[in-house]
Hints:
CATH topology: TIM Barrel
Family: Belongs to the aldo/keto reductase family.
Low-confidence stretches: none
Oligomer: single chain
Structural class: alpha/beta
Pfam family, one: Aldo_ket_red
Domain NADP-dependent oxidoreductase: 20-301
CATH class: Alpha Beta
Site (Lowers pKa of active site Tyr): 85
Protein name: NADP-dependent oxidoreductase domain-containing protein
Amino acid sequence: MAFSKNHCIKMNDGNQIPVLGIGTYTPAAVPKTKCEEAIKAAIEIGFRLIDGAFAYGIEEEVGRAVQEKVKDGSIKREDIFYTGKIWNTFHRPELVRSCLEQSLKNLQFDYVDLFLIHHPCSLKPGADLLPRGENGKLLFDRVDLCKTWEAMEACKDAGLAKSLGVSSFNRKLLEMLLNKPGLEYKPVLNQVECHPYLNQSKLLAFCRSKDILLEAFAALGSQRDTAWMDLNTPVLLEDPVLGAIAKKLSRSPASVAIRYQLQRNIVVLAKSFNRKHLEENFQVFDFQLSEKDMKALDDLNDKNIRYMKMNE
C-alpha cells in the first residue's frame, strides 16, 4: 500500500508532510547496518517520512539507504520527506549552518525537508555531544534560542531546509518564538513525546490554535534504552486497554496506538528494525477507532508516564 496525497498534511508554510514516518535513532547495542536495512524496507513498504538527527550518528547509513532506493528506481529524492535536527551543542547562531551542512554531507543530500531544534537545552560547543565537567555534570551554554532560530531561517533562505520546526518545546518556549520581533518563518511543527500514557492534549490544543502541527515520537512507548529511561516503566504495548481494543479489531497494539494519534491529526513516528512490525505499523489507513475506543485511550493519560528523561 503506497502513500497517497491523502496520507499527508499541509503545514503552515504550504509544504506537505506525510502523516506517518519511521525514526532512525539507533541504540549503541544495535549495528548501524540494521537501521540502514530498516530504512530500505520501510521505503519498500511505503513509508516516505524519515526522521533523523545529527546526534543519532546514523546519517551516512540513512543517506545510503535512500540513495540505493533512488538508484533502483523505487523512489525519487523528492518523494522522501527527511527531517534533520540541530543538536544542543550547535545552538550558537554562528554554528547552526555548520551543523546542517555536516548533516547534508553525511546524508549526501542537497537539502532537508524539515530542520528542527532537537531540544531547547543548550550545551557547551565542542566535539562531545554531551559535554561534562570533572564532576560528571553536563556543561550548559547560555544561548538565546531566538537567535538560533534566525540562523535557521537563513538556512531556509539559502535552500538548505524547506521547512523549520522545533522539538520538545513547551507552550512558553513556543510563545517566545512566535512573539519574536521580526519573525520570518513560524515553526511548522513541534515534535514531542506523545502516546496514550502522555497524550499532550493541552499542548496539542495550543499548537492547533497557532496552526502548528504536533508530531509524536515514542508513539509506541520506547525502546528499553537505559540511557534515556527507567526500565521499571510500564511497556505501553502491553497495556490491557490497548490490547483489548487491538484484539477486538484484529489489529496489533502498535497499529491501534498509531491510529489513535492519526485520528487526533498528529503526525506519528513509529520506529522498528523488524520488517513484519514495519508492515503492521503501516497498516493503519484502512480502519477507524470508535469514539468509545478513543475515549478509553484518552483515559490512559491519567498514568502520566514520560519515557524520555531529558524531555521537559
